[in-house]
Amino acid sequence: MPHLRIAEAAALLGVSDDTVRRWISAESVPTVSDSAGRTLVDGADVARHAARASSPGDRTDVLRSARNRLAGIVTKVQVDGVMAQVDMQCGPHRIVSLMSAEAVRELRLEEGSLATAVVKATTVIVEASPRDAR
Questions:
Q1: Where are the coiled-coil regions (predicted)?
Q2: 52 DSSP 8-state letter
Q3: pTM above 0.85, yes or no
Q4: What are the residues whose beta carbons fall under 8 Å from the beta carbon of 72, sequence distance 6 or more?
């Protein structure tokens, strides 16, 4: 499962770092420490709080023509044969993308993964950075 720094989780959910820390304390959200001693939360636990989210910004500095990019967190992945359904919470928006099961495997999408939905007309394209696709 991917792990996120508190600041990353807060940005994805559109809340302050302190709010995430309060959730960790009050709701017993489990944490781990990375090699630098920073507190990390499991991406799946962040995904469970996604309904409380507001819109996060684009996490990349790449210039592109697509304007409808929604950074968010994967909340559910259903794979059935050759097709898959990927649900994401992108701020207040729930995005559902239908894609090949092969694409889900290649992007290593799972609950708690960070991803960006690119919406063009009625098509949703999901991107994941190499850091997130481990």
A1: none
A2: G
A3: no
A4: 12, 50, 53, 56, 88, 89, 90, 91, 93, 95, 114, 115, 116, 117
List, as own/partner pairs, every contact residues 119-125 make where C-beta atoms lie below 8 angstroms and the sequence separation is at least 24, other chains included.
119/68, 119/69, 119/70, 119/95, 120/66, 120/68, 124/95, 124/96, 124/97, 125/97
Pull the structure tokens for residue 132.
């997130």
Find all residues with CB under 8 Å of 108, minimum gap 6, and list them. Answer: 128, 132, 133, 134
| 120 contact partners, CB below 8 Å, separation of at least 6 | 66, 68
Per-residue pLDDT tens digits for 94-115: 899 999 999 999 999 999 999 9
The token pair that represents 36 in the structure block: 């630098």
> At residue 110, what are phi and psi to the nearest 5 degrees?
-155, 165
The 3-state DSSP class for residue 21 equals helix
